[in-house]
Amino acid sequence: MGMGTGMGVRALPASPNWYSSRCSDASSDGRLFGFAARHRVCLLDIGAAAPAFYGELIGHTDRISGFAFCHCPGQSGLCASSSDDGSIKIWDAASLSPVLEYSRHQNPISALHWSPLVKDLIVSGDEKGVIVCYWHNRSDSQQFFPEPRTVFCLTCSPHHENLVAIGYKDGMVVVIDISRKREVLHRLRGHEDEIHCLAWCPVPGEERLAAWQDELQVPSEEGKVPNGELTQDTTTKKGCYLASGSKDQTIRIWSCTRGRSVLTLKLPPTKRRGGAVDPAVKERIWLTVHWPPGHATDIVSSGFGGELLLWNLAQLGKRKWTLLGSSEGHNHSRIVFNLSSVKQQDKELLFSISMDRDVKCWDLSTLDCSWTMPSLGGFVYSLAFSPVDTGCLAIGVGDSMIRVWNTLSMNNVYDVKTFWQSIKSKVTALSWHPTKEGSLAFGTDDGKVGIFDTFSSSAKNKPPQISSTYHKKTVYALAWGPPTPPLTSGEESEQPSVTLYSCAGEGIVFQHNPWNLNGEANDINKVIRDTNSIKHKLPARTEISWKPDGKLLALGNEDGSIEIFQAPNLKLLCTIQQHHKLINAIRWHHEHGNQPDLSYLIASGSINATIYVHNLKSVVESTSESPLTITEPFRTLAGHTAKITSLSWSPHHEGRLVSACYDGTAQVWDVMKEEPLCNYRGHQGRLLSVQWSPVDSDCVYTGADDFSVHKWHISKQEHTRPPQGKKSIELEKKRSMQPKVKAKKKKKPIGQSPGKQDVNDAMNGDESVKETLLEENGVLDHEGEKEAQEAELPDKVSTTVSKDTSSSASDYSSFNLPKPFVTQQAAPVKKDPSKEKPTPDASLKKRKPRSILPFSTFMDHRSKDELHQDCLRLATCLKTKDNNEDVSPDLKDCIHLGLFTDRDSLHKMIDVEGKHHLENGHPELFQQLMLWKGDMKGVLQAAAERGELTDQLVAMSPMVGYQAWVWTVEAFAKQLCFQEQYVKAASHLLSIHKVYEAIELLKVNNFYREAIVIAKARLRPEDPIVRDLYTSWAALLEKDGHYSMAAKCYLGASSPYDAVKVLSKKGDVTSLKIAAELALITGEEELSATLSLRCAQDLLLSRNWVGAQEVLQQHKTLFGQRLVFCLNELLCKCLSERNPCGQKSSVPPCYHSWELNREASFFDMVIEVWQNVLGMDTTERATCAWEQLRQVEHPPSTSNTPPKQVLFHISHDLALAALSFQSGTWDEAVKSILGAVTRSFDAGNFTLMQEICSIILPEGCDDLRHKLDSTNSQSMDACRSLEGFVAYRLLYDLWWNTPKDPPGLQKAVLDPELCPSEQTALEKSCLSGDSSPGETDQTPAGMDENLCSTTEGQKCETQSDSGTNLVDGQSKLKGCKVLLSEEMAVLQNTQRDIAEVQETLAEMIRQHQRQRNNLQENTNGNTQESNLEQSSETELDKPCSDSKQMNGKDEIKQPLTLPELTKQLVNAKQKLAEFPDNLKVLPFPDVLECCLVLLHLGSQCPPELQEQALDLLRKHSSSNIYKKAVRRFLT
């Protein structure tokens, strides 16, 4: 896990993370200071005067958000870290090893603290507000949720082990007690913005700060009580002060006993508010506070822009603060995030981490800065030692800054200057001027080249010179070398001795004049072409290196070749064809050894893992004119398993080389022996740069994508060669713990949570957004490499690696790159050619269109000889032309000379060029040429035939003439239709005034919206097309269910009736309501009324009477219905009051709040509401309503009609009755009431019938009978029928409510409310009149026994029963006499006979059909005949078996023949005809059923009624249903 100090590594570490309330801490023994840097923790050894890199804690896979040491005695080596990967890890810092890990949070953790009093307790908080306490010795945890807000910081009290203070994003501070159930002790309100830090006063008690005691008296000695002398009885001794720092720029001191703020400190506006930051960058403020141990009245806090303040709380008056750091250079230049302190022997040290990427240590007694440790916020792309200022190392970093480290500084190990002005992008290349001190050239990711003066005293603020020539892509390499043409011309004194060469991702090398960076830089390919008369395309350059003596230049290319040129004119001496993959590094051996021949050695590394060394001595000494090609290496260094990124020769040895590689290691080689000497594995990432120390032969510096530079000693390394196989995979794993990038980080706005603020601060906050997203998380392949002319983001880091070495053991698939970054432009990438194949074409394609005459142009760029020949030939031609001869024959093979001769030749030249364009797939260029030639018509026809017309051609077509233009547009429209671009086609048709065609085209292809726009814009409003479009579209929309859109179309087509229809199609309440309103607006009164009624009925089903009335009241024609709905509401109210335990509906009813007169009869109450509420105040209105209602016919109810519908229909009948009542037409009233009663009876709802009788006629029918006209036989019969039903209800009432019934029986069989499902058998039999005999067949038989058993039970009871009940019951029963009507019994019997015969006939017909079907099915032959017989037999048996059950065992019925049946039917019908019509029409309860009930009542029934009942039964119970039921009474 990282390195121990024993390895003597000195490092510039990765920068501390930003925007965390606590991600750095010092151990209490004063040995170590740790801070979170990306997903690792960096530990510094602070025991000595200068800090040293101690090692790293490695294991988290995402950004670390919190870090704290354990401050309990004896455990100073333990520390804890929390990460965005969801886990908290505990570490042993001394051994750099993990102790344990837990994940109790569901959300990102934002704060963490190790309790100073409980040695195994760690408290953490997350973005949703959950607090987790974890006791690691017993791995027990507990959760608290004091507030549903984002936690920003938390701190455990140093005095009370259960107190924890929590600061939230919105400015709230809460103190909780983790030992209590209701944990919150105080909610401290006062801050208006994020709480960045909380600090408890290190000294307990609240009586020592005199300046704030508003209530207490000030003690004499300024309130400073020495530590041990607290008096026990002070009221405040339990308390403790708490300090908080907030983004609102204030610090507050809170009293915990009083739960309120006692002091507010406002940050002073100091001079240096901006710090050394680019003034354009508006910085957020971060206010952290630290209360150093032992100081009751001193607090340190951060301020604006990086200064630190020491506040003296005891001081009264205005100025309470002092600035830390006297001299200018010592302060932080940007905001400070964390402060922590530690006591060492006699000194008290304070540590701070800041956005300026410095870690500083301060002496609290002198307030001076003791030391500064710089750190790096990006990949280390480049390292360069100055050749003049020995030991001065320049570092190019991905955080857009250059560090210049004076590694030989005696008094400061980390003497580092930072340069950031004007860079604004990753620094990818560096090179020192060979002779001029402090002149440092740099190149960046965005193609900028510049020179800094690092030496002058004012350099710190002096911006660099920037070359006016920018590269298009990442700068890969810089080198100073002798001037080459065109800079070599002119006097020696007028030109610089060395110029700057830069090579970048687009494959070009520029030469910049350092004396005139504003001038144009030169592309050296031009000189190379000229000097070596090269015609072919030059390869893309990826690396550049001058031999130290300035005589030879090596260029590395994308195709893997290396070319060696001689200065100054860059004559090509040789090409090394060895690598075959993109070249990343070339280094010449130094000149100052004992073996001068070694200076001709050149080492090179590529995307292939092998390093080759070539000896160019023979080449230089060769006398050959033409360039040589080398294919054999002088030495081969094999062992790495990934691409080589950088090389450096040892200046102290001969033939010793160090290489940096993507396999995560650096390797020292003895080149002559081809031997690996030493392998360094201390980095946690892929190496990008390496430099051998110029002063210490045992020392090497390396930079990597783990954001760090390491200085290490060769002699102290245990490994000698690069890791192979398994080892390299493990190394890979170690490195692959790069944080996975979360897409959400990109989006979060400022201030989401600590550590996730500005995008450009992600991780540890690089200024450039690209930097953070691509690299902070260390995920990209290309870093520091020169991969790709077309840098695209690789999906896997291994894009290049796995393809280029045989040992792909180190495939980098672990660095997965999440998708969100595809939008980002990639950083410097060198690509292997296998990926790059398409690139040349791409670049060609880009260049092709530039030349419209490529063939002629090419012919004019041939060798000088051929061009001379052209001149002679041309002269000859022109001569003959003067002699008026035809030129063209002489120019057969020199078509390009047509440019300089007559028109015919030019036309030929144009034709040849045009043919070229067509063959190469550039028709647009061919067309352009033809346009120049003037042959536009031909082009248009050809293009139309081939379907290659374009907008441009159409635009040019008018030059041929109007007809041609119209024809072209039509052809183009057809072509567009073929390509399914109908809208565009229509637009073109419009341009030639073909409006109808355009509209039709759009319509046919369902572009109705567009078609309508054109039609309405271009045609007359009354044009039928418009209407047709609307209706066609509406039909389509209607089919797809877009009703409201379709309705709009119908309205547009001015057919509102259809609009209303389509709106109401969906049929739900809202649609109906809107449709009705629409119909009303458009004058469709009748339709509107119909829809309103439908809507109201739907509302009724959901029991919303209020809504229903609202819908109805818009229509006069629905006044009658309003009365019905009103009555229905009152009826439902009555029913629910009478029977509260009735079936509960899921929808609560919505009643009106009418005042009801409960004393009056039901009809009176209803009429009163009608008059008062609905305004039925005149007789006309009543008559009108009655007329309206009388016209409505409702179908008769059956047992299948839904109860709510039955009720509604009943309400309709009753409304008519009430209206008749009011107008005194009693005959009508009786009929209507009878209608209502029989409707409930027909629906099979006996209970409802009972209720309605008792609501409407509580006193029986006598009252009504007196009011009727006794001469009107119709109404008298109706009244009699009504009386029958009232008596029928009474009869059952008496029977079911017989006094002292055995409760079990009553419930089991007879209580209709308890067993509604089997509506007692008798009730069923009463339906026999209008339900099929099949339904009632079996009931009486089975029911009889139940009835008997009940009666037996009752007989015993009733005999001993008190007489009073008997008398009462008998008097009531007298009223039932009306039921025992012989006439009705005969009528009902006859009706039953008819029904029975009809049923038998129907059954015969059904059977006959079945047999016929079977015969048809079985035409396949005899095999199924037997089945047929069986089936027909069984079918025929069925009626018999049914009848057996019906008739009991004793009587077997013979099957009837058709004539017999017909005869029976005729007889019965004749009999029926004899009865008066009124009787047949009006319903009446079943007489025989009533007889049976009377007999069952036994002693309750008066003897004369019993006699009458028995008599009727004897005469008329011939029907099967009653035979068995009657038997026991008649025997």
Structural overview:
It contains 44 helices and 57 strands. It has 1531 residues and is α+β, with helices and mostly antiparallel strands. It is extended, with a radius of gyration of 53 Å. Mean pLDDT is 78; it is low at 213-236, 273-277, 741-848, 1300-1364 and 1422-1452. The chain starts with 9 loop residues before the first strand and ends with a helix. The strands form 14 sheets. It has a 5-stranded mixed β-sheet with strand order 42-43-44-45-49, covered by helices on one side.
Q: Please summarize the sheet with the most strands.
A: 5 strands, mixed
Share of β-strand residues: 15-25%
Task: Name the helicity range.
Answer: 25-40%
Average pLDDT, rounded to a whole number, is 78
Oligomer: single chain
Strand order of the largest sheet: 42-43-44-45-49
The total beta strand count reads 57
**Overall form:** extended
- Low-pLDDT stretches are 213-236, 273-277, 741-848, 1300-1364, 1422-1452
The N- to C-terminal Cα distance equals: 109 Å
Q: Tell me the Rg in angstroms.
A: 53 Å
**Computed structural class:** alpha+beta
Specify the number of helices: 44
